[in-house]
Amino acid sequence: MKIIVCIKQVPDTKGGVSFNPDGTLNRAAMLAIMNPDDKAGLEAALRLKDQYGAEVTVITMGLPKADEVLREAMAMGADKAILVTDRRLGGADTWATSSTIAAAIKNLEYDLVITGRQAIDGDTAQVGPQIAEHLKLPVISYAEELKVEGDSVIVKRQYEDRYHMLKVKMPCLVTALAELNDPRYMTPGGIFDAYDKEVTVWGRDDLKDLDDANIGLAGSPTKIAKASDKVKKGAGEKKVLDPKESVDYIMEKLTTTHVI
Amino acid sequence: MDFTFDKKHAMCQSLFKEFAEKEVAPLAIETDETEHFPEETVKKMQKNGLMGIPVPKEYGGQGADILAYINCVEELSKACATTGVILSGHTSLCVDPIQTYGTEEQKQKYLVPLAKGEKLGAFALTEPMAGTDAQGVQTKAELDEAANEWILNGSKCFITNGFYADIYIVIAYTDIVEDKKGRKQKRFSAFIVEKDTPGFTFGVKEKKMGIRGSATYELIFQDCRIPKDNLLGARGKGFPIAMHTLDGGRIGIAAQALGIAEGALEKTIAYTKERKQFGRTIAQQQNTQFQLADMATKVEAAKNLVYKAAMKKQEFMDGAKVSYSVEAAMAKLFAAEVAMEVTTKAVQLHGGYGYIREYEVERMMRDAKITEIYEGTSEVQRMVISGALLK
């Protein structure tokens, strides 16, 4: 079995978030870690490897510095690592990112693709399902448990008020929740080996099936109105209005907060 | 010359830090209070490859190096000095001599399970009448040629990892020879002894000032028969084997001392930034600032000595004909005295709270003291260093 795990190096938001004057994240001021949901996805893949003997390839798109997160994944037990990095790919939103990563995955053989549910820096939860869409794969999001049975995966999917048990034939894509497992530590020997191994580096030109209109800043339709640290949810707002007024009120709120 | 960790060692350090913070630190107070040997932590260390860091992969180890191992002892000791010495006693004092002097059969039989962490190791030289003066060793090993066995008789004391360890390196005398002046001299040999060998039992468990979770036991050998093949190295070469082993062990203890000092410094920095007196934090007062500056400077100097000694030992492991005795002695001497000084100042800067167990610097001060004593007292380190200077 061949498993691809998409991982992302993100700023560690535990120690607070730092912004540049233009509203973008000041990544240099924050420690970089492997995104927690992605780490759970990697652990799930490594457990399948322990059980069934899979080959695990990790892939990330980012600055050359993202090499670190790939080494960390190899130090945990991943077999191969691919870094997609190119100035032309910079400034990508979820659409451009998923287009790029899907194009990279097309260069590889796989039975299962695992991504984290969402990254703690963007919190969109869009890239995983979009990659599945580009690759025309079935997607199972919010996986809390993951097993393999024959040529299918069995996934316990978290829902707001229930769980879904889904059996899906591979190849498919699963997005993992941090709750999926407790990721293993790296080992000292794994770290030494990880730095002796090669990380495959791909630039724009290594990605064949990719339209320039869908990459980098120019290929990113998202416009960021405002970025902020996580805002604690308050108790909510209570209003007593008649039905007509309340609909207008809700519509206005949803519009002004850009929900719709 | 570069004083920073390369990427491999920096990543190892982040692993050790995370492990120490998540798995070791939460148990440090309880381990001290209950004097309970942290078996569960040792199991986790085994699972995560911490019990054979510098051992080659073909012998069940991690294939990393001495610097990474030393850094692991340091990071564990920042959180809990008991856990640090368990690893140092196992790796430096039992794994290392078998790796260095063992036959291929001994390596397969003992080094592999030790490096994998399936077995825990210990080293036994000290006796009631023999600490620094090895000639005082009374434990005797006689060869029974007919049975192809050695017969051990005697006792050892203050043995770290005692009772919990599965494999013991035991130093005993095997011959008495006359030197040129006609004085009788004992010739020592090193042996590998397994727990549960008939005739090998444990005496008292010591109650100590610090590192209270570390199991310190008396070992008793009464007609304890071990296979002839369990002689480690050549007959009569036990003393140089013990000295080689202690040279390495001293780097481990130096790392433990460094870790204790760093742990105390970190706690003190955090505390002085919070504690307010006379309307401002005590960190805003110049006395505190100067004390912290001195503590940090000494910690940094100790760190450089410890890492230098570790790198010199690595050169030896890589096949260079170098001695690291002096570097190890300097590292241990300095780091141990820094640990004592820094933890004492840490308690002082904490004021009354520093004397309360909950604040942990009190434990660190008790833990620091042993680093000036075991595996060669500070006085012995001075003998080693001056001996090399005046040779």
Overview of the structural elements:
The complex is a heterodimer of chains A (260) and B (391). Chain A has 260 residues and is α/β, with parallel strands linked by helices. Chain A has a single domain (2-233), classed as 3-Layer(aba) Sandwich (Rossmann fold), CATH 3.40.50.620. Helices cover 27% and strands 23% of the residues of chain A. Chain A has a 9-stranded mixed sheet, sandwiched between helices. In chain A, strands 2-3 form a two-stranded antiparallel sheet. The longest helix of chain A is centred in the first third of the chain and has 17 residues, at 36-52. The N and C termini of chain A lie far apart (42 Å). Helix content of chain B is 51%, strand content 17%. In chain B, the strands form 3 sheets. Chain B has a 4-stranded mixed sheet with strand order 1-4-5-8, covered by helices on one side. Chains A and B meet through helix 2 and helix 5 of A and helix 1 and helix 4 of B.
State the gist of this model:
Chain A has helices at 36-52, 67-76, 94-105, 127-135, 188-196, 243-256; strands at 2-6, 9-11, 32-34, 55-61, 80-84, 112-116, 139-149, 152-158, 163-169, 172-176, 200-202. With 260 residues, chain A is an alpha/beta fold.
List keywords for this structure.
heterodimer; A: 260 residues; alpha/beta; Rossmann fold; nine-stranded mixed sheet; 6 helices; 11 strands; B: 391 residues; alpha+beta; four-stranded mixed sheet; four-stranded antiparallel sheet; 11 helices; 10 strands; globular
User: Could you give the count of β-strands of chain A?
Assistant: 11
- The proportion of residues forming helix of chain A, as a percent range, comes to 25-40%
Strand content of chain B: 15-25%
Strand tally of chain B is 10
Output mean pLDDT of chain A: 89
Poorly predicted parts of chain A: none
**N-C termini distance of chain A:** 42 Å
Q: For the CA atoms, what is the radius of gyration of chain B?
A: 21 Å
CATH C-level class of chain A: Alpha Beta
Gross geometry of chain B? globular
Radius of gyration of chain A: 20 Å
Q: How many helices of chain B in DSSP terms?
A: 11
